[in-house]
Each structure stands twice: as C-alpha cells, then as structure tokens.
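Subject: for your reference before the review

Hello V.,

The reviewers asked for a structural picture of the protein, and I figured it would be easier to keep everything in one thread rather than splitting it across files. Below is the amino acid sequence we used in the manuscript, unchanged from the supplementary table.
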Amino acid sequence: MAPEEFVALALAQPINSGRAQFGYAMRVASGNPNPPGLLALTWITGKDASERERIRAYARKSLEDFLAQPGFISIVTGFIGLRGFTVTAWEHEQAMKQALGKSHAVAMRALFGENFVASVWTSVWTPGRLNRMWMRCIDCGTLVDVSENQTACQVCQARLPDRPAFW
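And here is what came back from the structure prediction:
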C-alpha cells in the first residue's frame, strides 16, 4: 500500500486495535538546527469529517507562517479519526507568538466566534533538562556526543554525518 493510500484509508475510517487508534502523522522541519527552547502541544477534535478538513486547511496556512518565522524549528502533526494533534518546536516564545499572530489568529477567531470544533486543548512546555544528543560513528562504532555539532569522532577522527535536528 502506498503512503498516500494509507493516509486516505486513515482519513476515511479510523483503524483501532484494543485501546490503540491509528491515523497518520507528518513532520515538517524548517532546517533550523538549534535546540528547542519550548514546545507547544495541541489537540483539536472536529465534530465530523468536513470540520476535520477545515481544521487541516487552517493548519496548512499556519504552517506556511511557521516556516517563514525565524526561531521555528519543526512540527509533528497528524490526525487520528477526528482528533488532530501538533507538537511544534521553537527556539523561544517570542518567535511562536509572532507566528501565531497571523493565519493561526484567523483560525482562533473562527474557533471562538463560531460553532466550530468539538473540543481543543493547547499548552506550551519549556524544558526542565535538555539531554545530550548522541550519534554513532560509522567508521568505529563509538557513540559520540554531538550536542555542540561536533564534526569528527573523538576516537578515530572520522568525519561524522551531519547532526540530526533536535526535533
């Protein structure tokens, strides 16, 4: 099954197995390599499939604003049935606030001004601790701390691949 077919299936009818529900997700990265200074978590539930599509349309416009905003790192988003979710990573709160003041503000006016969405919850989280980022050296197998974007293995001096994004 092609990925597009799985997404279409997940949108058409949720897949359940016991307590687990399956849907689809995607990650969109800005290319910003910096660690997150905060994460914003959101879930939102549409009343029906047409409302889910309206939520997705607002989300696409908001994502365009996020990608244009310095300080945006990445988003993981998706839907399971009628419930959508996002985790956005930002360098700092000011960047998030500026991005949310554009297309997202239009969506918020619809949320509070119309009979739109069944339920929603948002939150902003700051890290209590950022652990180190580790990467395996391809040549010697050493686990290397690449938190500061080291480019060479400290054991064999082999060049390391580019460090993955923090989020």
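For the response letter, the relevant points are probably these. The chain has a mean pLDDT of 92. The radius of gyration is 19 Å.

Happy to draft the paragraph if you're swamped.

O.
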